[in-house]
Amino acid sequence: MKRSEFNIILFLFLYFFIKYGFYFYIGLATPGGNVHISFLEQYANIPYWITLIASDLSALSLKLFGYEVHQYGADNVTIAGSKGVTIAWGCLGIGAIGLWIAFIVAHKAKVKFKLKWILAGVVAIYLINIIRIDMIALSNHYNWKYLQSFNAHESFDILSYAVILVFMLVFILIYKKNKIKIKSGSA
Fold first, then answer.
1. CA nearest to 71, candidates 52, 90, 88, 89
2. Which of 21, 22, 26, 38 has its CA 20 to 30 Å from the CA of residue 15?
3. Is 36 helix (H, G, I), strand (E, B) or coil?
4. CA 43 to CA 29: how far, in whole Å?
5. DSSP string, 72-114
6. Region label for 110, one of left (φ > 0), alpha (ψ between -120 and 50) or beta (otherwise)
7. Contact (CB, 8 A) for 97 and 18
8. Distance CA 130, CA 57 (A)
């Protein structure tokens, strides 16, 4: 029996582990939960770091376009004179990132090949998220009613999963092409 090139069990395990493990970790690293580990909060607060990266990059991109931006916390981006954007844990794209990482890892490919694709996908998802945060900040600044009534979380999910789907198709095509090259080169 021929072994599959894709391990569905590994894929499902990794996806759920990354997605729900992240929220479990939030509970451990954030004060106020039933189980709080101060060491994680102080020295390994990954959820905080991910939030900080998203908010700082969003603020930086707005500054590059000439806006005066303030951050009233690691999870905040505010254009001067308007309502700010607060980035919640659910707004970090961990579900999309987890799906992407699990999909790539579940394939039988070389580690270097997988790492390149993981990095490309995570960067793409993060860029989409930064654009989303910027658009919310701009809609608050300019009082764009349409964008303010728009469901930013749902739109991010749709766009990021569409990008992931395209990336998956490209990955599979390149993966199969490389596999054919390897087989024909060794014959």
1. 52
2. 38
3. coil
4. 9
5. SSTTEEEETTS--EE--GGGS-HHHHHHHHHHHHTB---HHHH
6. beta
7. yes
8. 7
Instruction: Give 156's Cβ-side CA count (13 Å radius).
Output: 24
pLDDT digit string, tens, across residues 29-65 = 988 877 899 999 999 999 999 999 999 999 999 999 9
Do 87 and 55 form a contact (C-beta atoms < 8 A)?
Answer: yes
Q: Which of 57, 178, 175, 173 is nearest to 123 (CA)?
A: 57
What is the rounded CA–CA span in Å between residue 11 and residue 152?
A: 28
List, as own/partner pairs, every contact residues 125-129 make where C-beta atoms lie below 8 angstroms and the sequence separation is at least 24, other chains included. 125/93, 125/96, 125/97, 125/100, 125/160, 125/163, 125/164, 126/53, 126/54, 126/57, 126/93, 128/93, 128/156, 128/159, 128/160, 128/163, 129/54, 129/91, 129/92, 129/93, 129/156, 129/160
pLDDT per position as a tens digit, 113-162:
999 999 999 999 999 999 989 988 998 899 887 655 667 778 778 888 99
